[in-house]
């Protein structure tokens, strides 16, 4: 099938590439000329394991192409994906200007039947707005005769695992009440719908809400666990034991109950906020979601508070080694990353940071530029040199078995603040470290 994807961000680029990989003829459109020309040369602008080779292979095979020419894009695909950003506007609601601009573009150039698919995470009711926008522009053109359908097809991929998530989705949500559009979508996704039926067809609004409900549910699990972890510290319990104890109940499950430094990234913070705002706009107070957000914002400050307490507030002139900058492993994404809240608090208190991340160094440099209180180090070991303590913010695999003797030798004091519970507190104590973790070692915790 011929498919056009508007927007080559995470969602659009991965989706377009995966559709090409199974044999569809895909054209990706983006307004950013330099991005498009880089993609044509095989340069993928994001770090996503496995994506660059797939882009290159499919581009070379002629199944995947990139362009800034929107008119060409509209002509190309029977299916037109809208996968552009929906950034939060000032009050936290999702800003639909890019989505509606693409809808208008499609309507300006279409001259035969199209199925328009909303892939971006958009508030309930957006598909209706997209449909109305397309109808309005077609009417202005005197072409109200051209048939079109708007389908909601939310994406559930995780950064760092996007290719695998897209190739083997848990479910494929198709929001439409049109039998024709459903059939087109079934054919498009047939290569991903083997072994058992993963397609769930529902009305458009339910599909739109499904996406927010999924992300908000996962964010709720994390905030709940962070709350219990904070309690465990105060009560002298060990959250790791509690985690295993409750995860073994299949109704709860082991996934997404890891306590830490709060969730970040491009989805959870934005989507929780957007659903709160949507609820507000229809005079419903989303009390639970507000609490989820509040717990998360507070959680992002817990590591700093532990550092501050340990040093009795005397952080001026201190230097901290920081391992992990991205909001989670296997990505260079720094959006809403807990490391940012921590670094900014340390700087505010007059401390300096020597940071290392396997992928997010360039992004950190881009965000913060050159500052005297930030040194970006080439290795995790060099970040330790002369620092007053080590702080671990992101649980990269390469941090799991460090050379503890070297850490001790390089740090001025043998102190580790671990925001991800990477090590066994007893082992750390026996190695001579003062070890802080999240909800684990009551004697050392706040
Ligand atoms: C998320 C959803 O998982 C995905 O389905 C959706 O399409 C987009 O949003 P992503 O933001 O890429 O994906 O990351 P995810 O792996 O879900 O992690 C989100 C955040 O939660 C990270 O900051 C992570 O560190 C944190 N997290 C996750 C925890 O603190 N504890 C956990 O147990 C799990």
UniProtKB/TrEMBL annotation:
Where would I find the UDP-glucose/GDP-mannose dehydrogenase C-terminal domain in this sequence?
321-425
What keywords sit in the KW lines?
NAD, Oxidoreductase
Q: Please give the catalytic activity noted in the UniProt record.
A: UDP-alpha-D-glucose + 2 NAD(+) + H2O = UDP-alpha-D-glucuronate + 2 NADH + 3 H(+)
Q: What class of enzyme is it?
A: oxidoreductase
Q: Where is the signal peptide?
A: none
The biological pathway it contributes to is: Nucleotide-sugar biosynthesis; UDP-alpha-D-glucuronate biosynthesis; UDP-alpha-D-glucuronate from UDP-alpha-D-glucose: step 1/1
InterPro entries recorded: 6-PGluconate_DH-like_C_sf (IPR008927), NAD(P)-bd_dom_sf (IPR036291), UDP-Glc/GDP-Man (IPR017476), UDP-Glc/GDP-Man_DH_C (IPR014027), UDP-Glc/GDP-Man_DH_C_sf (IPR036220), UDP-Glc/GDP-Man_DH_dimer (IPR014026), UDP-Glc/GDP-Man_DH_N (IPR001732), UDPglc_DH_bac (IPR028357)
Stored SMART domains? UDPG_MGDP_dh_C
| Entry annotated with the keyword DNA damage | no
Which residues are involved in binding substrate? 156-159, 211, 256-260, 264, 328
As recorded in UniProt, its EC number(s) are 1.1.1.22
Query: Record's family?
Result: Belongs to the UDP-glucose/GDP-mannose dehydrogenase family.
* Protein name per its UniProtKB record: UDP-glucose 6-dehydrogenase
Source species, please?
Answer: Halotalea alkalilenta
Taxonomic lineage from the root:
Bacteria, Pseudomonadati, Pseudomonadota, Gammaproteobacteria, Oceanospirillales
């Amino acid at each position: 099938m011929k498919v056009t994807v508007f927007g080559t961000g995470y969602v659009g680029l991965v989706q377009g590439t995966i559709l090409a990989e199974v044999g569809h003829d895909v054209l990706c459109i983006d307004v950013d000329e330099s991005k498009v020309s880089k993609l044509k040369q095989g340069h993928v602008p994001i770090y996503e394991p496995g994506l660059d080779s797939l882009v290159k292979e499919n581009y070379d095979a002629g199944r995947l192409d990139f362009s800034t020419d929107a008119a060409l894009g509209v002509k190309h695909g029977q299916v037109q994906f809208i996968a552009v950003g929906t950034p939060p506007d000032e009050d936290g609601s999702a800003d639909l200007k890019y989505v509606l601009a693409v809808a208008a573009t499609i309507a300006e150039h279409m001259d035969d039947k199209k199925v328009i698919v909303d892939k971006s995470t958009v508030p309930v009711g957006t598909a209706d707005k997209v449909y109305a926008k397309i109808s309005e522009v077609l009417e202005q053109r005197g072409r109200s005769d051209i048939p079109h359908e708007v389908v909601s097809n939310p994406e559930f991929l995780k950064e760092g695992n996007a290719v695998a998530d897209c190739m083997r989705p848990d479910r494929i949500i198709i929001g439409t009440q049109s039998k024709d559009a459903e059939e087109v979508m079934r054919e498009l996704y047939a290569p991903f719908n083997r072994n058992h039926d993963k397609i769930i067809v529902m009305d458009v609004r339910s599909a739109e809400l499904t996406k927010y409900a999924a992300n908000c549910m996962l964010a709720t699990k994390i905030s709940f666990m962070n709350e219990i972890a904070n309690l465990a510290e105060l009560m002298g319990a060990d959250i790791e034991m509690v985690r295993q104890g409750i995860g073994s109940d299949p109704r709860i499950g082991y996934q997404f109950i890891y306590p830490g430094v709060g969730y970040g990234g491009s989805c959870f913070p934005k989507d929780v906020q957007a659903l709160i705002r949507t609820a507000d706009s229809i005079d419903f107070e989303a009390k639970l979601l507000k609490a989820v957000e509040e717990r998360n914002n507070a959680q992002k400050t817990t590591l700093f508070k532990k550092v501050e307490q340990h040093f009795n507030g005397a952080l001026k002139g201190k230097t901290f080694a920081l391992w992990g900058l991205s909001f989670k492993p296997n990505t260079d994404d720094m959006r809403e990353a807990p490391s940012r809240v921590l670094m900014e608090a340390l700087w505010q208190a007059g401390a300096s940071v020597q940071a290392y991340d396997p992928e997010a160094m360039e992004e950190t440099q881009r965000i913060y530029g050159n500052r005297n209180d930030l040194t970006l180090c080439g290795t995790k070991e060099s970040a330790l040199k002369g620092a007053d303590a080590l702080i671990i913010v992101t649980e990269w695999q390469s941090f799991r078995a460090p050379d503890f003797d070297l850490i001790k030798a390089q740090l001025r004091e043998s102190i580790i603040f671990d925001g991800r519970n990477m090590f066994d507190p007893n082992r750390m104590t026996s190695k001579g470290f003062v070890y802080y973790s999240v909800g684990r070692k009551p004697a050392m915790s706040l």
